Amino acid sequence: MLSFQGENILSVNQLDRDCIERIFAVAKKMEPYAKKQKRTNVLEGAILANLFFEPSTRTRVSFGTAFNLLGGLVRETTGMQSSALAKGESLYDTARVISAYADAVAMRHPDAGSVAEFATGCDVPVINGGDGPNEHPTQALLDLLTIERELGRFNQSIDGMHIALVGDLKYGRTVHSLSKLLCHYKDVKFSMVAPDGLQMPDYILDAVDNAGHKIQVVDKMEGNLAADIVYQTRIQEERFPSQEEANKYRGGFRISQAIYNAHCKPNSVLMHPLPRDSRLEANELDNDLNSNDNLAIFRQVQNGVLIRMALFALTLDVADKVEQYEVDVPWFSRKRNS
Ligand code: NCD
């Protein structure tokens, strides 16, 4: 399907099971570099253009970190208003310009299809960091790697698992991409737990159904969280037609330790793409879960760096050269020593 070298990563539709396994194999190889046990300069001299036209903390910083960890340099723009897009420049022109500076691009933009449009003007690999409500392929890959690793602790696999997707399934791009990736696995049971009006779009339900998975579409958490993976999401207020409309749903589905005890399985793994909305009126994943060993949200973050390193290594065709460019780590590192 995807040969990786020089290719864009725009959608999970480009990935089959072999591609996913190739990415995971390279991601696992990146672990000692992410932990600073080793260092590599394999991308020395390469420049990443990290273009974020929508708010982001972890996706933006982890793309940059991943490129830096491979020895490359990062140039960044943040926000629409501080870019020439605010002056009417087309995505195509911006892409032609950025191509003159960079060897790879990571991009986030509020419009569905925008990253693919940008890629038509770009002659270096473009990786989608989220295009409106549409897709978030790198998040889906890091979520899937997290699921594989978390279930692995209980000798369980993705095939045959039960996942509950909770919250804003209409606008949440991470659950769209993750559901599509899970179509490459077998006998998954999905509980789509969302209020009326924020349910999973039909085209995703159809894809999951066509993959032979079981789907339960429900509008309350009670009785529907006894899953192996419980994946909570944020109400994507920035995508609603009005703030009043978003306010109607805020705080509707909250998971706390008490809810976990009452409705989850003893070892249900709790995931969230983050940021969790911790404002009092939302509090969708309570801080009282922070000491719950099955809260995997910060392990997701670590896996995100590995996945993004893997994608850069594969698209820039250095996955097999990482060790060859290894250098010493002379400085003290908490991560290396932990
Ligand atoms: C998500 C996103 O931006 O789609 N966050 C992320 O990338 N880690 C989810 C969200 O913003 O709620």
Observed structural traits:
binds N-carbamoyl-L-aspartate; 12 helices; four-stranded parallel sheet; Rossmann fold; EC 2.1.3.2; alpha/beta; 11 strands; pyrimidine biosynthesis; 338 residues; 2 domains; five-stranded parallel sheet; amino acid binding; 33% helix; single chain
What's this entry about, in short?
Belongs to the aspartate/ornithine carbamoyltransferase superfamily. ATCase family. The protein has 338 residues and is α/β, with parallel strands linked by helices.
Explain how this protein is built.
By secondary structure, the protein is of the alpha/beta class. The protein has two domains: 12-135 and 304-330, 3-Layer(aba) Sandwich (Rossmann fold); 137-298, Aspartate/ornithine carbamoyltransferase (Rossmann fold, 3-Layer(aba) Sandwich). The protein has twelve helices and eleven strands. The strands form three sheets. The chain has a five-stranded parallel sheet, covered by helices on one side. It has a four-stranded parallel sheet with strand order 3-2-4-5. Strands 1-11 form a two-stranded antiparallel ribbon. β7, α8 and β8 (214-218) form a beta-alpha-beta unit. α1 crosses α11 (297-315) and α6 (137-152) crosses α11 (297-315). The longest helix is centred in the C-terminal third of the chain and has 19 residues, at 297-315. The radius of gyration is 20 Å and the shape is globular. The two termini are 39 Å apart. 44% of the residues are buried. The mean pLDDT is 96.
